[in-house]
Design brief:
Blueprint (H helix, E strand, L loop, with lengths): L1 H25 L8 E2 L1 H8 L3 H13 L3 E4 L3 E4 L4 H24 L4 H20 L2 H18 L3 H10 L6 H5 L3 H19 L3 H20 L10
Antiparallel strand pairs: 1-3, 2-3
Helix pairs in contact: 1-3, 2-3, 4-6, 4-7, 4-9, 4-10, 5-6, 5-9, 9-10
Length: 226
């Protein structure tokens, strides 16, 4: 029993460390292609290097990081074609999530979550804060996925389309782009709150396609370590 308890405690420690490091990745604390040093992470996370290695392996499996033999672990870079393929998957999954959310009778708390996420985006739009808008958009997408009440969709989004990939195109938005994206998101929000599944799915798919169109115009990233 003591051994099992130790294993569970170790698993929790690794999961907690992965959650903290994942949040830092999503917050843009690291750059694409940056090498992550085990010693420094052990100090920052307050865990042993063995646990750090387990944490890194977990995030490699989720697509946030990439391990290069004899060189280390790096923040993963994606080619433009990989990103576009990822967004094609996102379009289907998030469109379905929006549809399923619109089919449900949301609780007052769930309505509040969606409205708060939308208000955050509206506020960022008014101040023309592109970084705040990007973070708010990632949070809004997470809320919509949660409102679908589908663990399958959430798991697929988490493992097939790392949330990290939601940020780059939005960070590059100018004022007009923020306006357009906020309007797109508002259409999805309104359709979900109005229990209009067809409209919710169509609006979400159009929104994700708009993101993909911006990615198609981005320069091809350099290969890690070159």
């Amino acid at each position: 029993m003591a051994k099992d308890g130790g294993l569970h405690a170790g698993r929790r420690e690794t999961d907690n460390a992965a959650d903290r490091l994942r949040t830092r990745l999503l917050d843009g604390e690291f750059t694409f292609g940056q090498r992550l040093a085990e010693t420094r992470l052990a100090q920052e996370l307050g865990i042993g290097r063995g646990r750090v290695r387990e944490t890194l392996r977990q995030l490699v499996g989720e697509g946030f990081l990439e391990s290069i033999p004899n060189r280390g672990v790096f923040v993963r870079e994606y080619s433009r074609s990989e990103l576009l393929a990822m967004y094609r998957v996102r379009e289907v999954l998030e469109g379905l999530a929006a549809r399923m959310a619109a089919e449900r009778v949301l609780s007052p708390a769930e309505i509040g979550q969606l409205e708060h996420a939308q208000e955050t985006l509206n506020g960022a739009r008014q101040t023309r804060d592109a970084e705040r808008f990007a973070r708010g958009a990632a949070a809004w997408h997470t809320v919509v996925g949660r409102l679908s009440h589908s663990s399958s969709i959430s798991d697929l989004m988490h493992h097939v389309c790392p949330p990290l990939m939601h940020l780059p195109p939005l960070l590059a938005l100018n004022a007009a782009g923020i306006d357009r994206s906020c309007r797109d998101v508002g259409l999805v929000t309104s359709a979900i709150l109005g229990n209009a599944p067809d409209a919710a799915e169509a609006a979400m798919r159009a929104h994700v396609r708009s993101d993909a169109a911006r990615i198609a115009m981005l320069p091809e990233p350099a290969t890690t370590g070159v």
